[in-house]
């Protein structure tokens, strides 16, 4: 769900930020913004699912290994998604290239953080009996 959300955010950003005009009676900018919104919703939902829960094992058995992402990192990832999608930026996009670079930096950090969490989750699941 996270990766699909990322793809939709990036795919929607291209027409929303670069293309002007209509395609079959639909404004391309509005369509791109709608795709970005759907991608952002999927991305946030996927990030919130990173907060794993402890799995209960059979009675009397030791607790199984589980994976859990910290609340602070989840909040930071959600804020990064909102910052990337929102039209309000610290540096407006009109000031090229700096306006685009701040969004790209947030996206790069988000990709790095999600990759890191995916790797940690995979390692934990491989170690679990």
Please write out the topology:
Elements lengths: L1 H17 L3 E2 L2 E2 H21 L22 H15 L12 H30 L2
Antiparallel strand pairs: 1-2
Helix pairs in contact: 1-2, 2-3, 3-4
Question: Which structural traits does this protein have?
Answer:
mainly alpha; 4 helices; 3% strand; 129 residues; elongated; two-stranded antiparallel ribbon
Principal-axes geometry comes out as elongated
Residue share in helices?
Answer: 55-70%
- Major beta sheet, specifics? 2 strands, antiparallel
The number of helical segments is 4
Strand content: under 5%
- List the secondary-structure elements in sequence, H or E: HEEHHH
Give the integer mean of the pLDDT values: 78
> Quick one: how many beta strands?
2
Low-confidence stretches: none
Separation of the first and last Cα atoms: 26 Å
| Rg calc | 18 Å
Query: Strand order of the main beta sheet, please?
Result: 1-2
